[in-house]
């Protein structure tokens, strides 16, 4: 018996290490068997015959229980899973209990016990079953129902009464073990699961399905809800949000008009779908970051409390606040494109800029789209991506301070590549009208700007094609081409 136990322990540790905890029962039974065998030997030495029959009976029962537990453990927990057959955890316990009964009857017959002894043996069987089940009748019924009909399975994410959510770690005879997101384990009695409702997250019609998450935000009533919905929906559709699934698609809705007299805001809701139940709050955070960046780009502030006093000037504010304008000026002075401009011209452009932040993973510009503005990268990193045959390739990485999209500003040409934010990014956007005022006041600077732009385009070609395609006379021809398109685009004299 000791050799069998040792072999069984080795097999379980090698082939099913997660089940090694179940070896405790056969080990304890074997220790009991050894102890009873020692007592039996002592009784024989002392010739104490009245107790020898019962000690022999109990020793054999302990050995039989140990063997039964090892056989069930090897079959249900080791062999069958390796053959692709997984039985409910309760199956092993039921088989063990039945085996215990067979062992008791067989041992009683082999030792020649009387009818009275058989009755005592029946009591032992009942005790063995009780020990094996380890629960009250209600919890046992609940455990059997849960495991046999597959209502709840290990690994499911569930929501209990009171809104607490967690992952099912184990289904026992007496209780369900639920591990919550904060690292705690909740023991839920099986009997209570038969009388209260629980929600199984991410399952519909017996198959896996993403869970919908809803993130709310408030904006002042002065903003047109149609415009708000369009701004946020465009940001949701522009690029996927980490942790969400593409289908069902995310959407933005007007959730509430505000019922209170002093409520000066409207409630909006963004709905996304996710399979990442463990990091659902992280997904919510990603959505909030995306929405906040979109609202900032559109110049829309979140709602302020109704009791806040707001002084409105008769004239609408234009351009950046003074601190942001100074910051934008300092960034511009570090970019080669603005090198030909004077300090006064750079400060004039800084006053016409718009602050546009982007969340990580968002597309700042899309390849092939027409645009009449450029972006000044003030903080963060972006990737320049080129779409070829339906797949995107990274061709360059830009880090602040830098610019991108200058061909759209200077010539109105469609975007030749896409640009994606790598983490949070802060940009200033310079549009055609703001740049036109500076260029028309000093038209001859167009030649210098064209030369700088031609150089930048050559550098992008090197990164994209692996060789310098704009050297010598090629660079001169490209400069002349860009200058001609600038003059046509801005209506400058030749």
Overall structural domain count: 4
CATH topology of the largest domain: Jelly Rolls
Helix content: 40-55%
Distance between the termini: 103 Å
Keywords:
single chain, 494 residues, alpha+beta, SH3 type barrels, Alpha-Beta Plaits, 4 domains, six-stranded antiparallel sheet, five-stranded antiparallel sheet, elongated
Could you describe the 3D structure shown?
The chain has 494 residues and is α+β, with helices and mostly antiparallel strands. The protein folds into 4 domains: 2-133, no CATH class; 143-201, SH3 type barrels, CATH 2.30.30.60; 211-297, 2-Layer Sandwich (Alpha-Beta Plaits); 322-490, Sandwich (Jelly Rolls). The chain is 48% helix and 21% strand. The chain has helices spanning 2-15, 24-46, 49-82, 89-111, 115-133, 137-149, 190-193, 225-238, 280-297, 322-332, 343-350, 406-411, 432-441, 445-465, 473-490, and strands spanning 157-159, 165-171, 175-180, 185-189, 199-201, 203-204, 207-208, 211-220, 251-256, 265-274, 354-358, 363-365, 373-388, 391-399, 402-404, 418-431. The chain is elongated. The N and C termini lie far apart (103 Å).
Topology, please?
Elements: H1 2-15, H2 24-46, H3 49-82, H4 89-111, H5 115-133, H6 137-149, E1 157-159, E2 165-171, E3 175-180, E4 185-189, H7 190-193, E5 199-201, E6 203-204, E7 207-208, E8 211-220, H8 225-238, E9 251-256, E10 265-274, H9 280-297, H10 322-332, H11 343-350, E11 354-358, E12 363-365, E13 373-388, E14 391-399, E15 402-404, H12 406-411, E16 418-431, H13 432-441, H14 445-465, H15 473-490
Antiparallel strand pairs: 1-2, 1-5, 2-3, 3-4, 6-7, 8-10, 9-10, 11-16, 12-16, 13-14, 13-15, 13-16
């Amino acid at each position: 018996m000791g050799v069998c136990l040792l072999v069984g322990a080795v097999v379980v540790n090698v082939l099913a290490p997660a089940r090694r905890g179940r070896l405790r029962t056969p080990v304890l039974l074997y220790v009991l068997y050894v102890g009873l065998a020692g007592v039996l030997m002592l009784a024989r030495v002392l010739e104490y015959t009245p107790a020898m029959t019962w000690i022999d009976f109990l020793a054999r029962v302990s050995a039989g229980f140990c063997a039964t537990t090892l056989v069930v453990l090897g079959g249900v927990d080791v062999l069958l899973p390796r053959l692709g057959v997984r039985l409910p955890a309760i199956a092993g316990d039921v088989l063990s209990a039945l085996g215990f009964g067979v062992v008791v009857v067989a041992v009683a017959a082999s030792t020649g016990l009387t009818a009275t002894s058989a009755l005592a043996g029946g009591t032992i069987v009942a005790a063995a079953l009780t020990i094996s089940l380890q629960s009250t009748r209600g919890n046992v019924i609940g455990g059997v129902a849960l495991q046999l009909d597959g209502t709840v399975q290990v690994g499911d994410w569930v929501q209990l009464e009171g809104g607490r959510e967690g992952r099912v770690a184990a289904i026992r005879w007496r209780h369900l073990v639920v591990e919550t997101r904060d690292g705690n384990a909740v023991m839920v009695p099986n009997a209570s699961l038969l009388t209260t409702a629980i929600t199984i997250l991410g399952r519909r019609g017996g198959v896996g399905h993403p869970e919908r998450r809803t993130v709310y935000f408030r904006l002042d009533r002065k903003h047109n809800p149609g415009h708000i919905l369009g701004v946020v929906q465009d940001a949701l559709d522009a690029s996927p949000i980490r942790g969400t699934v593409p289908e069902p698609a995310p959407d933005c809705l007007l959730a509430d008009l505000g019922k209170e007299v002093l409520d000066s805001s409207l409630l909006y809701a963004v709905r996304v779908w996710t399979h990442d139940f463990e990091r659902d709050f992280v997904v919510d955070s990603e959505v909030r970051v995306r929405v906040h960046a979109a609202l900032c780009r559109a110049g829309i502030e979140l709602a302020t409390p109704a009791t806040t006093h707001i002084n409105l000037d008769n004239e609408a504010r234009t351009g950046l606040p003074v601190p942001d304008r100074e910051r934008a000026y300092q960034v511009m002075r570090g970019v080669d494109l603005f090198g030909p401009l004077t300090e006064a011209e750079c400060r004039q452009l800084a006053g016409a800029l718009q602050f546009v932040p982007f969340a990580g993973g968002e597309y700042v510009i899309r390849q092939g789209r027409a645009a009449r503005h450029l972006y000044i990268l003030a903080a963060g990193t972006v990737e320049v991506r080129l779409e070829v045959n339906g797949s995107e390739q990274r061709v360059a990485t830009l880090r602040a301070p830098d610019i991108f999209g200058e061909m759209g500003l200077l010539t109105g040409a469609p975007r030749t590549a896409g640009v994606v934010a790598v983490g949070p990014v802060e940009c200033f956007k310079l549009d055609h009208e703001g740049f036109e005022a500076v260029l028309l006041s000093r038209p001859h600077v167009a030649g210098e700007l064209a030369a700088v732009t031609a150089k930048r385009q050559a550098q992008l070609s090197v990164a994209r094609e692996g060789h310098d395609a704009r050297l010598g006379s090629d660079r001169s021809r490209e400069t002349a081409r860009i200058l001609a398109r600038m003059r046509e685009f801005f209506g400058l004299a030749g």
